[in-house]
């Protein structure tokens, strides 16, 4: 089976705090509730869908999956005794698939505000990276974020990813509050040889949350 087909085929990743399930239209209502938690779409340095735009965003991601360039997931909260137990609380993807060089980006990720800075994000990254390096045999996994998104940059750096560089004036920001400003994009990565140390670090972080 071609490497890209292996990547985009239906995959569910299950952890202690979260599960990553294939995104589908049935997640819509949960994701609308999640994005309202913190009004995430109002952050000018992100492109998080609004409640009204959620259905279109789900379809966009599924369309890219059909083209072989994305594997979108819904993030399910598996923690017991919380109001969001068993519900979709965010989205994440494997994207920018480079089958020739066995590279992917983990991106287009967002979580409800109440989920941020919990063990869910760390465990999701651990599951995605484990799948990428140990099942897909990736050479490197990338992360990209707006240079002004200090919270995202700090979270990526806590994973153990290294800054490869900054793509200056990389994109025109289409957020209504950004007024066409030019986005500088920070590019981070974890390489195959760095993975064992990163895995040990993330596994210990998840264990400490228990």
Question: Looking across the biggest beta sheet, what order are the strands in?
Answer: 1-2-3-4-5-6-8-7
Number of extended strands = 8
Low-pLDDT ranges: none
Taken in chain order, the helices and strands follow as HEEHHEEEHEHEEH
Using only C-alpha atoms, the radius of gyration works out to: 16 Å
Q: Briefly, what CATH class?
A: Alpha Beta
Mean pLDDT: 90
State the helix count.
6
What kind of sheet is the major sheet?
8 strands, mixed
Domains (count): 1
> What fold name goes in the CATH topology slot?
Aminopeptidase
Helix and strand content put the structural class at alpha+beta
CATH architecture: 3-Layer(aba) Sandwich
Beta-strand content estimate? 25-35%
- Our measurement of the CA-to-CA distance between the termini, rounded to an integer number of angstroms, reads 38 Å
Give the proportion of residues in helices.
Answer: 25-40%
Overall geometry comes to globular
């Amino acid at each position: 089976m071609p490497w890209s087909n292996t990547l985009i085929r239906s995959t569910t990743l299950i952890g202690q705090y979260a599960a990553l399930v294939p995104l589908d239209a049935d997640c819509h209502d949960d994701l609308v509730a999640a994005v309202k938690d913190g009004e995430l779409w109002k952050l000018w340095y992100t492109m998080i869908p609004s409640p009204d735009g959620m259905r279109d965003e789900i379809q966009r991601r599924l369309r890219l999956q059909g083209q072989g360039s994305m594997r979108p997931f819904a993030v399910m909260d598996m923690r017991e005794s919380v109001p969001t137990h068993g519900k979709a609380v965010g989205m994440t993807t494997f994207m920018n698939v480079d089958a020739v060089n066995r590279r992917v980006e983990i991106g287009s990720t967002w979580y409800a505000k109440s989920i941020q800075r919990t063990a869910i994000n760390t465990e999701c990254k651990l599951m995605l990276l484990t799948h990428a390096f140990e099942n897909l045999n990736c050479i490197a996994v990338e992360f990209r974020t707006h240079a002004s998104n200090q919270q995202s940059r700090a979270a990526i750096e806590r994973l153990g990813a290294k800054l490869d560089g900054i793509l200056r004036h990389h994109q025109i920001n289409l957020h209504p509050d950004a007024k066409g400003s030019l986005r500088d994009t920070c590019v981070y990565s974890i390489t195959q040889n760095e993975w064992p140390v990163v895995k040990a670090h993330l596994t210990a972080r998840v264990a400490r949350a228990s």
